[in-house]
Write a structure and sequence with these properties.
Blueprint: H1 2-114, H2 120-125, H3 130-292, H4 337-345, H5 364-376, H6 384-388, E1 392-394, E2 404-407, E3 415-421, E4 424-427, E5 436-439, E6 447-450
Antiparallel strand pairs: 1-6, 2-3, 2-6, 3-4, 4-5
Length: 451
Amino acid sequence: MKKRILSSLLACSLLFTAVGTPGIVFADDFDKQIEQKNQEISDLKNKQAGLQSQISALEGEVASINAEAEALFAKMNTLTEETKVLQQEIADLEVRIERREEAIRKQARDVQVNGNQTNLIDAVLNADSLTDAIGRVQAMSTIVNANNDLVNQQKEDKQAVEDKKAENDAKIVEINESQVALEAQKGELVRSQADLAVAKADLAIQQSTKEGEKSALAERKAAAEAERARIAEEERLVAAAAAETRRQEQQASNEDASATNNSADNASNNNQSSSNTNNSNSSNNSNNNTGSSNVEAPSTPQTPSVPETPSTPQVPETPVVPETPAPTPPPAPSGNSSAVIAEAYKHLGKPYVWGGKGPDVFDCSGFTSYVYRHATGREIGGWTVPQESAGTRISVGEAQAGDLYFWGSAGGTHHVAIALGGGQYIHAPTPGSTVSVSSVGAWAPSFAVRM
């Protein structure tokens, strides 16, 4: 029994030790892990502070770009108004020139038809008197001067028209350059906004990571404390089992000692009584021995061996066939011109706002980008220059419905529209206007891009 108790105690101790050791090691390492996580959290906070300064700088850049864009728009609006005035002055001059040309042509026809080639000498010779001669000379001078003034005024007006047209062309070029600068500013704005979005997303991820790590640490700490409590309870049970074993051993030892003493007393008494009976028993023993020698002790029957039950053959496991992921649907085709045009027409009449990306306000490239994104699922870029690369460059005459028209040189375009076919296009024109349909004849694009 003693051996059985000791074996049970040893097995119990080994079991508790095997189960409890990993928890002890984990608990011992937990403080180091917490310290490491605290250091990581501190580093994250430092990075967040630096990232916040970058975000502030990007926000300042965005505000500066917007201010420059507003200044360019104010300049462009001024140039546009000046251009309108020049165009009206040119129109008025052209009307006067046309009328004066008609008067000059009429006078020339009169001279040719009537042979009215009177000169100053003829006027004097044909005069009736000196007074009449002087009057004729003054009249002839007046006519000549009037004709000369008419011709000179005609030349001046024509020169004025040329000058004003040159000035108007220069202002148009300046407006186009302002538009190109605005598109470039828009590109910078889009990039800065993208950088800002990435920075903010990075900050959010870091904050989420930090919170997640803190939560994970709290869960691991609770688990470690529970593991430590479990180990302590197991150690208590082992100690209690050991104490109970020692008590049982002591009790068994006491019982063995008492039994030994009783056996000694009984043996002495038995020796005395046995001496009196030895003689009588000896004859009986001899007779008994003689009879017993002829009797065989019965043999213990052997238990027949039970045949081993044959083991059940293992059925091979059915192999698990991994699920085939559903194929990603292909993106919508980019050449769906009917869908593009239908989407574009939905926004007729919506106001132009620089930097507007929809759905309520648009600028030119914001309009084309929004339409293609919602009609075909394509991202063609946030301003004109990247949109030039969204397809294949073609001539204006080759453009079909759904293609893009561009104004300006490649790499420096300042306006974009969606071709409708038949020489028409839909676009968000300029500040103060709305999304509308126009024609190539009214404002011709520089080139087109097949989408």
